[in-house]
Amino acid sequence: MVGVFHGHAHNRLCQLNWHPMYIKGMGHSEGEGCEHVFSASNELARSTRHASRFHRHQAIEQHFAFWNADKYEALTRFIRNHYREATQTVRTLTAKLAIVKEALKLTDDDFSRFIIEERAYLTSLKQHPQRDPLKVRYTQALDELEERRHAWNRAREAGNGALDGIAVGDYNAITLALKQAGARLDLAYAMLQNAEQMAGHLQLQLGIESRWEIGGPEYTRYKAQGVLGEYHEALDELERLVVMRLFELSKLSMLDTGNVIQSL
What we know:
Shape: elongated
Distance between the termini: 28 Å
Strand content: under 5%
Radius of gyration: 32 Å
Number of helices: 10
Mean pLDDT: 82
């Protein structure tokens, strides 16, 4: 069972399908009871690593015997604290939920419908249309082609003015300026040709008769898809870095809200 927070390292669709909060009859649960037990028993590894089989089993049995005794002793306090916390949470969230429902004109049935729609949406994302990524790449190729054209024009303008400011008769300076201008022109033209070939190749694969215009409807549509994809990739990377940082802090026994915020 995977806790909600671990959705950053797991996936949201699995949470929607299997988290107890979304399953009728199970109610809300953090889903990490076993993890707490395993975390406490991990200390046994250090003391039993080189022990005999008998002493290893003895240490494990004693550990869980004391664990059960401690938990049984604290059971009344545990139930009382969690009951008070649950009643306070229900009271607070019920009031907040009533405000949200009134403001957005929602009913209880709408929340179940939202879960169904989100599950259907995430399921549909498993199979991306095969042509869309190619069209997004085509818009990127058009952008690159436009950029190479501007670079080619700037190189030509620079080549035309390569001898400006050079004294007449200074053959070394003239030769160096012409050589640099020629190298810049050759490089700009080669890059322009490569961009032209890439755009043409993608256009042929997509079966597009006339090249899309930058700013046109098709270009704008798939350009927006590309930007949104980059945004989602950035969010995924941010989540990965946050979770990785939290793991690092947990190893240093610094995993609390204040330290996390200050370190980020």
